[in-house]
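Is MV4 placement plausible here? Inputs below.
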Amino acid sequence: MIQKILVANRGEIAVRVMRSCRELGIKSVAVYSDIDRKAMHVRYADEAYNVGPAPSAESYLRADKILEIAKKANVDAIHPGYGFLSENADFARKVTEAGIIFIGPSPEAILAMGDKLTARQKMIENGVPVVPGTKEPVKNEEELVKTVESVGYPVMLKASAGGGGKGMRLVRNKEDLISAYRMAKSEASASFGDDAVYVEKYIESPHHIEFQVLADKHGNTIHLFERECSVQRRHQKVVEETPSVLMTPELREEMGKQAVAAAKSVNYVGAGTVEFLVDNNRNFYFLEMNTRLQVEHPVTELVTGKDLVKAQILIADGQPLPYKQEDLTQNGHAIECRIYAEDHRNNFMPSPGLVKQITEPLGQGVRTDGYVYEGYEIPYHYDPMISKLITWAPTRDEAIERMKRALYEYKITGVKTSIPFLTKIMETKDFYEGKYDTHFIEKNLDSLLDESGCDQECEDIALFVAYLEYNDKLKKKSDSSSAPAQSGSNGWKDFARRKNVLRF
Ligand code: MV4
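Reply from A.M.:
I modeled the complex. Tokens:
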């Protein structure tokens, strides 16, 4: 059995992986950049090694250095988390060649899914539905015009080496086709060193629904149902939930079956995610497969009761899946909000820096996957996500109310956070009614940003002034010896974000 795992990552996901290691009695090894010396994952791990300067390219992306540390620390396996080296086939291969277990799929599976056209071809061969379009890269402009005419406008031009929204161009009419094609090609060549571009029919206002899959080394592949990820902004997910309100039992069964077929088509091993676009008539199409653990995996964990990181480790260890498809059920509803250090009122600019105070929500049905503590300085070098707040409840309505309650309890000072923005999303009627697609944030941006001219800071100041006046009144009422109504240095802060009128 695996005894020791190096976690080649930082932040909340490094801590998340180490938590499962601890429960399995496995020792964890952290790597950290110079600026992460005091980071939570370093404190949590059983051992920690410096991996280089703050920039990712000089630390968390240095496959050679990480392998050197893995050998020195004598680990059995490496967990790559998400981002960084998690979908780097070369890294996966080097790890395996060094006699260390890579907790993830084979380099071949990573490569096949990393190239969008190869993935598309695999799906077509295996009967997994894809968006109508081309199977090969477009050869020249002549062929492009012919192809697009047969597919019909609007179309999406996509870079084969792209993915996650990079290297895409929407074309609505033939006047724009050639220039869009040239731009897509040069962008793809500059960004990925590969100018292959293909054509897909454009799906208007789709839902983004993904399926979690797990596959062991013995040929067993199962799915753990869907996640609805349509609340996103510029290809960054903001809120995820499961189950999806769009789903019917029949559609779920069919999509689940196709997600498993997608994984099997590349002999997938480990935890993976198959992304689909679902149109307004509930037609679904394979979009891409992510060959890693995803940020939003906890919503799946809460409704299935399974620990996906434990499953990844057991699979990597060569053990058969501990549960079968028919053992799995969806219990209740889970929602995840990504808490970012960012200023949504200033074009969602990252807002890294010193976290002066942080009080995280607790109570029934609340989970936070975070890594930030009071006095910690969020570096500007990495993704500014502070934590993931996940609520579970028997029904969707209750999970939303619980999320609002948890967001209300969440207090962070020192950096700007997305908490007010997320609260606004939870309060939006269309979200509550489950009437949203991938254009939700764009469509509701004005009202989501509108805090009636009073943001958190301004509200805090107003409440503080009210509190001072209240104390003043108290003092005048009784004699000068009366104690203040609230003790503590920031008792007034507890009033923050209350929507009802305060009476003093
Ligand atoms: C599409 C599409 C509509 N039609 N492809 C965006 C991310 C990348 N992985 C693929 N994306 C899309 N591909 C066709 N043929 C719309 C999107 C898309 C989208 C997809 C999922 C989640 C959010 C999105 C936001 C805008 C566009």
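Short version: Residues 47 and 330 are 37 Å apart (CA to CA).
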